Amino acid sequence: MKVRLAAIGSVAAVLLSAVLLSAGVAGSAGPSPVLARINLGTDAWVVATGGDGSVWTDGPKGLVRIDPATDRISVRTRIRGTANAGLGSIWVPSGRTLYRLNPATGAVQATIRLPHDAESAAARRGVVWLTSPETKLLMRLDLKTRAIRSTRTCDAKWHGIWRAAGSIWLACYNEGEVLRVDAATNRVVARIRVAYGVHGLTAGAGSVWVNNHANGQLVRIDTRSNRVVARLRTGTNPAIVFARGRLWESGDKAVLGIDPATNRVVARLPVGSGEYYGLTYADGSLWLSTIGGERVLRLDPARAAAVR
Question: Which residues constitute the domain of residue 180?
């Protein structure tokens, strides 16, 4: 009887050890991916990477510059609008004015009057494209001549413009389409039907990626065929960026890393519940802006937990 009890006790001890070990493995979170939390004092709708590696986003009185070397705000401006990076500058559409800022100092390098209110911008090779959701126009600004050519497109909103594969791509929120616009002629050359609510755009791995603020889908479009080649359900936050060979998107409680070779979520950076609106990559880190939290989070993608 004593032998049997001892045996039972030994088995119980082994099972208890196994349970504890299993619980320890499952509960081990590892180091937090959050390297810094930069308080802004206001909601941050857009976050952009300057040509000098800095990060630009919203501040209480205007756009601010975050220095990655200190994780602190180093420049404060009085210019309100959305920050967009390109041609070594920060471009800020603000109503019918476009500002070109020095990314290191915030100094205004140029002020350009526009015929229509603008919201977002993309710049490349001496040209700036600007969206005007109210008029549904895409403006093409030649920086040398200051000539502006407008094309009727759609109501592309914040994050809804990207340059890739010799074209400008627009996410048309209400129309549920992604438009491909020839960068030279400013003409629409393809319309890709997706779904109502398409919002954020980025490009990588031979594709344009667009997420949907309404149905929580991430859609991959092949730039050679202009066709949708993959759909994933990830979440309704519009923050999205391609970096370090992966597509990164903010989910409901984490930033998700998606492998373009498999179109599957393979990594996860937990950040807690919140509404995350902007995402960029600079100085080896992901930078995530929050709505309601009034801060920008700096994340280490190397600390992402593998998802199997």
Answer: 32-306
